[in-house]
Amino acid sequence: MSDVEEAVTRAHQDEWARVVASLTRRFGDLDIAEEAAAEAFATAVERWPADGVPPNPGAWLTTTAVRKAIDRIRRENKRDDKHKEAQMVYDNTPPEPLGVIDDDRLRLIFTCCHPALAMEARVALTLRMLGGLTVPEIARAFLVRETALEQRITRAKAKIKAARIPYRVPAAEDLPARVSGVLAVLYLVFNEGYLATGPDTDPVRHGLTAEAIRLTRLIRALLPEDGEVAGLLALMLLTEARRTARVSASGELVTLDEQDRGAWDKALIAEGHRLVRERLAAAAAGMAPGRYQILAAINAVHTSARDIRDTDWSQIVALYDQLVQLDSSPIVALNRAIAVAELDGPEVALAAVDRLADELAGYHAYHATRADLLRRLGHSQRSRAAYDKAIELAGNTAQTANLTRRRDQLR
């Protein structure tokens, strides 16, 4: 990849959300914002190799996108009315009260996560508009067909326009009811950055994880007493702390049991542990923890162990037992089984995993888990077949490299 290609890729990761959010605020139309942003990046691909990368790529992209948007509005059949409406959105919007966080991306998240939209539509739309993820990437995250995902996004944008859903941070009294959808979105954005689902992108996309953490910090500033906001932030920090140890120099995924724990970010771990302790104190006072708080506590146990052999698996299984009461999804059951394997042995865990076959047949981690358990039980041929299926379904090159090595180590 050339320096210019790297600059375009980096700009897309760093600036996509800013450009789309800025255009949404100015023109009040998600379609215009998204298409103009895409055209601006396409123009960058054409012009930057000849003209050079501008000193401020974000400003260049925003200026170019604004011009593209205005050109599109002028081409519309009712261009005069649309242009007037766009200018009114930009020029006559009254300032928000002092104390409200002034961040276009945060405004855009609450617009995309409006309760008038179905939860699946909120998540998909925000991943597209804020994260800049492609439809195939989002479809992988949802385990749905690309055509269905595309329709979901299109319908969501149409509903926002038809219902005139406002582009603003909700009033203080509305925030608690709105925040759960936002947290679900940010968690998926973070996960896509921490280990990308697509085969044609970097396996770890720091721009997405950093954006998810930044926006979660902003929401925590808005809702400092919300336990799930604190829990999600702690979960992200403790997961992000391990990011640099997740992929080897050769581009292979490094699983938790093989990671160099000395490479973990101690500052992020300390901050994450501090948040978990705060939530544990709240739980002791009678405030039941939510899903993100329990996941953060699980990660706190992992990051407290200096060596994989020091991990308190009984505590992790107990936390998963709590989590199952709140989230009985098959993926939670799969992760619990992985912990059970360390506590009760691979045979007990394999029985639990096999019960998930119908629900997780298309999920690579299900087959990778089965392959590992079968390997530990000495069933090399069945393990190899499971590895082959996991490799077939793996989302990116780092996962494929890890699974291939493990498969090839079988006798």
From TrEMBL:
Residue intervals of the RNA polymerase sigma-70 region domain: 18-78
Protein family according to the UniProt entry: Belongs to the sigma-70 factor family. ECF subfamily.
Protein biosynthesis as UniProt keyword: no
Membrane-crossing residue ranges in chain numbering: none
Domain DUF6596, first and last residues per copy: 178-278
GO-annotated molecular function: DNA binding; sigma factor activity
GO process terms (BP): DNA-templated transcription initiation
One Pfam family here: Sigma70_r4_2
Protein name: RNA polymerase subunit sigma-24
Xref: InterPro entries: DUF6596, RNA_pol_sigma70_r2, RNA_pol_sigma70_r4_t2, RNA_pol_sigma_r2, RNA_pol_sigma_r3/r4-like, TPR-like_helical_dom_sf, WH-like_DNA-bd_sf
Keywords: Sigma factor, Transcription, Transcription regulation
Domain RNA polymerase sigma factor 70 region 4 type: 109-160
Taxonomic lineage: Bacteria, Bacillati, Actinomycetota, Actinomycetes, Micromonosporales
Keyword hit for Glycoprotein: no
PANTHER family per record: BLL6612 PROTEIN, BLL6612 PROTEIN-RELATED
